[in-house]
Amino acid sequence: MLRHNPICIFIALLLFFAGETSHAVKVVAVGIEEMAARADRIFVGRCVEARGEVDAAHGVSVTRYTFSVSRSVKGQVGGTVTFRQYGGQVGKRRTAVVGVPVYRLGEEVVLFLKPDSEWGLTSPVGVFQGRYGVATDAASGRKTVIQDPFAPHLSGEALSRTARALSKPVRLSREGRMDLEDFVGLIEGMVKGGR
Fold first, then answer.
1. Rounded to an integer, what distance in angstroms lies between the CA atom of residue 40 and that of residue 36?
2. What are phi and psi of 76, to 5 degrees?
3. Helix 156-165 vs helix 180-192: angle between axes, to the nearest 10 degrees?
4. In the chain, what are the domain boundaries?
5. pLDDT digit string, tens, across residues 82-105
6. N or C, which end of the chain is more exposed by having fewer CB within 10 Å?
7. Burial, 124: exposed, middle or buried (Cβ in 10 Å; 0-12, 13-18, 19+)?
8. pLDDT tens for residues 122-174?
């Protein structure tokens, strides 16, 4: 019966997606120097808490993230950073913004966060572009910055060109990942140089 009745199919799909809201954003490519300049806080950290909640003042779903900070690069950053980002899951209600990163517990990242909005919300500069994953090589323990497949202009090769322009030496893995220490040093140089 469901296969032959378009109204039943429409109602079934409507019920399936009833608890989920999704939004899209327009993303403009942002260079690493501009990201460093526009960021309010830049840090290397590990996600230790992710909790969905409804913003009491505005009635929207947000996620409160807490990161344990291993390295502060820019801004008022202590041992932990807690921030709220639009979107998340509260009960059966899920709100997602396409392109805005979601962080998993235990995930290590380098974040370039914008200043908090008047609602007390933030997100990375350039949406997903201001989030870099960190991978640890099991054999050597060496940490590298993960190239984001959705942001090819932020690849290791592009970062290497930026480093050369700033006269900073960097190490790249065979996969095009930049050494975490080199990456952080590059960003610190930009922040200190006012770039």
1. 9
2. -80, 90
3. 40
4. 20-192
5. 999 998 888 888 887 777 889 999
6. N
7. buried
8. 999 987 889 999 988 888 888 988 755 555 445 556 666 666 666 676 776 66
